[in-house]
């Protein structure tokens, strides 16, 4: 039996909840060679799957030969950074996922383990060594804008007064919401531990934890059922669901709504969150094929899959390389199937459903100007908040993209770290902005928010072919646009995509309909890694769903 016996024994020690047996039809393979695993995608899910597969396989004493395929030229997927002016000495700016929170244990623990430094979600005014940040001292930290006026603002200094104002305006709603968040977070955290972990079905696990009841309703209904007043929901919670998921409370489900309100200990990794995933990949394998797109997964009669792949050249389609193919024992698809361009033939037992995704426009730009108070209907001597969140006016419908954005026209505008523009002589300090919107941010919009006059020069535009900006480089010195399929529309639902698509064929992205974050993708990657090793070892979890044990939230 060699390693198998040892691993089975250690498994007994690990969990009493697991029922161990050797599957009669699938006796353990005892050949010496390592099992070959293909991980498709090097985002949070794929990196975590590979990293934990290496760990679990080592613990079980099984040899795993892991190859990671990644279409992009970089590791991180939707966690990636860019640098203003393409200047390698400037602070990297998150273009996708920017924060995770304290209870995101996989990311927090990995950050610590890898010795990465985190930075708190700071305020632009806190950057030392910049002259211009003093100008921000009087600006509110945050404001919620409805397209006509700021409904609430929060100052950076007077916290006590802000709390008093909140209680006055919203009564117990903030406290009730906080308690709801705690309850749902605690239920969610059960997914990390035995007996829930590993979970073969997310639908079953969510049901057992009582979380299906939270995903079954809209955020609006969920808050209402729990006696959170409409004003707080509309002005605060909806501002949060819009900045985090570009969705309104009347459509997004209750669980993702709770995630938006769970912001305790929000941090990002200095230099970029992708560093976590780079370290995970490093810890898993040397066989990492960047700039390589898998085009087909073909099931083999005798077991395993033939993968076909090609190198992609800088994304411009030129210099197509020859297709390659090899056999793998197991395959992990760690990317939304609908955007992967992978042919699965013959069709796997379960093909992931196509679901609508948000198309989010992220616009980064630098400017020497602060936002114009007039653009936000403020008196000329007042300052615009550093972070502007938005919500709908009471008469506006919560419809989807792009109408759901309402009169505000954007989801958020935030001031990021200040920067020194070295392209001008002498170098000068500027501000960096990030806008989330459902449509392209055009010159008209920039001119309005910066309070500029029309001017003829074109600004530097890193993405090339975009429409010429009628904004001078003096006013907008650098601009970068990216359109993401950022996350699914989180319409209420009670079932989630299968994790096992077929024998030895695994899928991580189903968790995005439940919660779409770096952490949850990493959790699903870890879960799949464990399911794979359990499968190899002939360990089967008792999947009996204990109906009597369903918890109420
Ligand atoms: C603007 C924005 C802001 C966000 N903010 C946050 C935030 O603050 N906090 C947070 O936790 N989450 C945030 N998210 C969500 C978070 O980014 C995602 O939930 C998470 O990164 C998804 O990770 P993943 O590994 O599942 O998918 P991805 O990161 O999409 O990784 C999939 C990878 O697979 C690759 N791939 C696809 N097809 C193929 C193929 N055929 N062959 C080879 N490779 C392939 C892709 O190139 C990609 O790199 C944000 C997302 C966006 C877009
Ligand atoms: C993984 O398997 C491939 C194909 O058999 C082989 O070429 C490669 O050397 C193996 N890698 C490791 C690290 O064993
Ligand atoms: C994270 O680290 C803490 C402290 O060591 C540990 O108790 C916890 O189980 C870890 N969680 C995960 C998901 O790794
Ligand atoms: C900041 O102010 C000091 C003193 O006026 C000046 O010497 C320096 O050049 C300024 N820095 C920038 C980046 O503008």
Automatic annotation (TrEMBL):
GO terms for molecular function: prenylcysteine oxidase activity. One of its GO terms (biological process) is prenylcysteine catabolic process. Residues 157-541 form the Prenylcysteine lyase domain. It comes from the Eukaryota. Keywords: FAD, Flavoprotein, Glycoprotein, Oxidoreductase, Signal. Its cofactor is FAD. Residues 1-17 form the signal peptide. InterPro entries: FAD/NAD-bd_sf (IPR036188), Prenylcys_lyase (IPR010795), Prenylcysteine_Oxase1 (IPR017046). Belongs to the prenylcysteine oxidase family. This is Prenylcysteine oxidase 1. The lineage of its organism: Eukaryota, Fungi, Dikarya, Ascomycota, Pezizomycotina.
């Amino acid at each position: 039996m060699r390693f198998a016996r040892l691993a089975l024994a250690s498994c007994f020690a690990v969990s009493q909840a697991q029922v161990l047996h050797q599957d009669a039809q699938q006796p353990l393979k005892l050949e010496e060679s390592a099992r070959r695993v293909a991980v498709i995608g090097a985002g949070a899910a794929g990196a975590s799957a590979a990293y934990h597969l290496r760990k679990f396989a080592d613990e079980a004493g099984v040899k795993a030969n892991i190859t990671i395929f990644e279409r992009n030229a970089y590791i991180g997927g939707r966690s990636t950074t860019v640098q203003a002016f393409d200047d390698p000495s400037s602070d990297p700016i998150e273009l996708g996922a920017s924060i995770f929170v304290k209870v995101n244990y996989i990311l927090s623990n990995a950050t610590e383990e890898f010795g990465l430094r985190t930075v708190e979600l700071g305020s632009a005014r806190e950057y030392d060594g910049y002259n211009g940040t003093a100008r921000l001292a009087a600006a509110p930290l945050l404001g919620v804008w409805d397209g006509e006026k700021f409904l609430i603002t929060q100052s950076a200094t007077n916290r006590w007064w802000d709390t008093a104002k909140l209680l006055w305006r919203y009564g117990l709603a903030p406290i009730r919401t906080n308690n709801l968040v705690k309850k749902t977070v605690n239920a969610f955290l059960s997914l990390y531990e035995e007996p829930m972990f590993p979970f073969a079905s997310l639908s079953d696990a969510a049901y057992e934890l009582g979380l299906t009841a939270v995903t079954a309703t809209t955020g609006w209904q969920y808050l209402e059922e729990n006696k959170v007043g409409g004003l707080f929901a509309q002005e605060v919670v909806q501002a949060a669901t819009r900045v985090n998921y570009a969705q309104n409370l009347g459509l997004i489900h209750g669980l993702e709504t709770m995630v938006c309100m769970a912001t305790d200990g929000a941090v990002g990794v200095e230099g970029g969150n992708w560093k976590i995933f780079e370290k995970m990949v490093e810890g898993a394998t040397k066989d990492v094929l960047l700039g390589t797109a898998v085009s087909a997964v073909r099931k083999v009669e005798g077991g395993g899959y033939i993968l076909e792949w090609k190198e992609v050249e800088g994304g411009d389609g030129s210099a197509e390389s020859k297709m390659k193919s090899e056999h793998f024992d197991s395959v992990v698809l760690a990317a939304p199937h609908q955007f992967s361009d992978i042919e699965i033939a013959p069709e796997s037992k379960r093909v992931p459903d196509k679901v609508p995704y948000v198309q989010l426009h992220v616009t980064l730009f630098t400017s020497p100007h602060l936002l114009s108070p007039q653009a936000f209907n403020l008196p000329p001597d007042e300052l615009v908040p550093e972070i502007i969140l938005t919500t709908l006016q009471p008469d506006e419908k919560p419809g989807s993209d792009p109408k759901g954005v309402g009169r505000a026209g954007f989801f958020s505008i935030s001031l990021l770290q200040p920067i020194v523009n070295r392209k001008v002589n002498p170098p000068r300090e500027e501000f960096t902005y990030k806008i989330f919107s459902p449509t392209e941010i055009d010159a008209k919009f920039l001119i309005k928010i910066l309070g500029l006059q029309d001017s003829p020069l074109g600004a530097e535009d890193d993405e090339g072919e975009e429409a010429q900006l009628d904004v001078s480089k003096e006013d907008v010195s650098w601009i970068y646009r990216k359109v993401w399929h950022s996350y699914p529309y989180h319409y209420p639902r009670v079932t989630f995509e299968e994790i096992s698509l077929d024998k030895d064929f695994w899928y991580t992205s189903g968790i995005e309909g439940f919660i779409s974050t770096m952490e949850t993708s990493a959790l699903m990657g870890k879960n799949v890694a464990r399911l794979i090793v359990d499968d190899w070892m002939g360990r089967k979890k008792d999947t009996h769903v204990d109906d009597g044990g369903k918890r109420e939230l």
